[in-house]
Amino acid sequence: MVGRTMQQSDHTVKGEGGRGRRVPLAVYAVLIAVGAYAGALGLVSGFLRLPPDLEERLPFASPVLGGIALTVIVAVPATVVAVLAWLAHRGADLAAVIEGLLLIGWIVVELAFIRELSYFHVIYVVVGLGLIAWGRDALGQWRQWRQ
């Protein structure tokens, strides 16, 4: 078998039935989800006001649409990763990889629209890469399933 199993990982806590909870991954994903939900709420409510020139560059010049997209593309998948990791579901690593790719994709698309780089973009690309690295065992398992 390629990589470590969840029971062999240093990042597990034995849960029900001897399965290991992925507590650090769950916490990491919760922090991403909370940040994304807060950002989405700020955009939808108007609490996070964008400069007019940036707002005009959004699809339909709508921060509300941006907030909804942030929820669907980043916050909800991060929540799924957190739950799967907490429950020690075997799909947690694969979900982390997918969420990492979604997060990086979100940043790339956001940059295409707003055309301004912020340190937040760099941070969240690194966060997305962290998710992909965390779920790297799933990539090895996926390769095995294909054979």
Question: Could you characterize what this model shows?
Answer:
By secondary structure, this protein is mostly helical. It has one domain (22-146). Helix content is 70%, strand content 3%. The chain has helices at 23-45, 52-57, 63-86, 92-114, 119-134, 136-146; strands at residues 13-14, 20-21. The protein has a two-stranded antiparallel ribbon with strand order 1-2. Helix 1 (23-45) packs antiparallel against helix 3 (63-86), helix 3 runs antiparallel to helix 4 (92-114) and helix 4 runs antiparallel to helix 5 (119-134). The chain is elongated, with a radius of gyration of 17 Å. It starts with 12 loop residues before the first strand and ends with a helix. Residues 1-19 have low confidence and may be disordered.
Q: Brief description of this entry?
A:
By secondary structure, the chain is mainly α.
Q: Mind sketching the topology for me?
A:
Elements: E1 13-14, E2 20-21, H1 23-45, H2 52-57, H3 63-86, H4 92-114, H5 119-134, H6 136-146
Antiparallel strand pairs: 1-2
- Main structural class: mainly alpha
Sequence of strands across the biggest β-sheet: 1-2
Radius of gyration: 17 Å
Percent helix:
over 70%
User: Which overall shape is indicated by the principal axes computed on the Cα atoms?
Assistant: elongated
Distance between the termini: 13 Å
Low-confidence stretches: 1-19
Total DSSP E strands: 2
Largest sheet: 2 strands, antiparallel
The H-and-E topology, N to C, reads as EEHHHHHH
Count of the domains: 1
- Rounded average pLDDT: 83
Strand content: under 5%
In DSSP terms (H or I, runs of 4 or more residues), the helix count works out at: 6
